[in-house]
Amino acid sequence: MSPPDASALSVSDVNRRAKQTLERDIGELWVEGELSGVSRPGSGHVYFTLKDARAQLRCALFRTRARFVASPMRDGDRVKVRGRLSIFEPRGDYQLIVEAVQAAGLGDLLAAFERLKARLADEGVFANARALPYPPRHLLVLTSPTGAAIRDVLAVLAARWPLAQVTLIPVPVQGREAAPALISALGMLNRQQALDPNRDVILVTRGGGSLEDLWAFNDEHLARAIFHSRLPVMSAVGHEVDVTLADFAADVRSPTPSAAAEQLVPDRRELQGRLAMLAARLERAQLGRLERDAQRLDHLRARLRHPRDALERQRARLDQLHGRLIRAIEERLAAERRRETHLARRLSAHPPARQLAQATQRLEGARTRLAPAMQRELARHRERFAGLARELQAVSPLSVLGRGYAILEDERGQVIRRSQDTRPGQTLTARLGEGRLKLEVKRRLKR
């Protein structure tokens, strides 16, 4: 190897000459493209990439010019910028120093994203909403093995739930091969589910990036593969502000990989705290129960008496009742004897034979007085009856009939008092002093 030529330029000289050439020969120009990777550090400068379908151009908008930009600059926006080409000498970065920014409409990628999103929504690809097992028995993570996403997920799982079983399925998460690899991995995991039923959740994740960096997760076929997955899928792509079609097609969407891990498993420290609290409550409840049972036992022990004492009390009460029964029987017998003596004295003072003789004597006397009294009463009633018969005979219609009069009656037994009460041909009954006559009315006379 020959020593370097003394006329060789240093790296600094090359970058300085390139910068001078760009600034002198090209000068100021307008460039149109789509914003991507917009960054706003604390310095107040704005760094971003301006791109089209075939190339990218790094841009820097310094703070003194950024404050004059009226509309916010967002990834996907299409803009026109005025600036001059230059090189950042310390790193040799080729860039456009922007002086002014004008909006040029929605970016092509973002417009394509919105069109595809609307079409898939109409087809029902975003209708998944299955609940995930909590915690999952076996978590399958589809992501890059070297990315920050898997490190964040594993760190959170180790801190919150060390028991979690995790299997990493390494796939590219950026570029043209990313979407086919993700689709193939999803198909493989669904086919293998029958071999290992414990596999119950798929996590599709990657870290943040620009819209084009995340574009693989906006693939139409990937969204359909997630929708048709028999295993439930959680999507955690990019940062919180990033949204992809994979997020909409998944059963659950999480804003970041770390947040996804937090959603998937409980916090063991929280569970340990709850377990400790429940254990303390259980211990307090047990102590309280033991204290109450001890007090109840003391109370029952105080009330408990030896069976001999109860038998003695019952025996004493039995003796007392026996004495009361004997006294009651003796008193009843004495009362009955006194009553018997009293009745005997009354019976001897008034013997039934004497009372019977007296009653017989009274009966004979009454029988002797009864016959004359009956004769007198009978005679009196005969005299009264004869007087009433004479009075009745005096006013009886039958006595009038005996003197030659008659009483006429119609068919109903009604007495005829006027000739107008009859009609020719009518049959009447004539009641005489002795017997009756049936008469027929021939004609009626007024007199």
Compact summary:
The chain has 447 residues and is of the alpha/beta class.
Describe the structure.
The chain has about 450 residues and is α/β, with parallel strands linked by helices. It folds into 4 domains: about 10-105, Nucleic acid-binding proteins (OB fold (Dihydrolipoamide Acetyltransferase, E2P), Beta Barrel); about 110-265, 3-Layer(aba) Sandwich (Rossmann fold), CATH 3.40.50; about 270-300; about 400-440, no CATH class. It is about 45% helix and about 20% strand. It is built from 12 helices and 13 strands. The chain has helices at about 10-25, 65, 110-125, 150-160, 180-190, 220-230, 245-250, 255-265, 270-305, 305-350, 350-395, 395-400; strands spanning about 30-40, 45-50, 55-60, 75-90, 95-105, 140-145, 165-170, 200-205, 235, 250-255, 405-410, 425-430, 435-440. The chain has a 5-stranded mixed β-barrel. Strands 7-6-8-9-10 form a 5-stranded parallel beta sheet, sandwiched between helices. Helix 4 packs parallel to helix 8 (about 255-265) and helix 5 runs parallel beside helix 6. It is elongated. The N and C termini lie far apart (about 195 Å). One of its GO terms (biological process) is DNA catabolic process. It is an enzyme of class 3 (hydrolase). Bidirectionally degrades single-stranded DNA into large acid-insoluble oligonucleotides, which are then degraded further into small acid-soluble oligonucleotides.
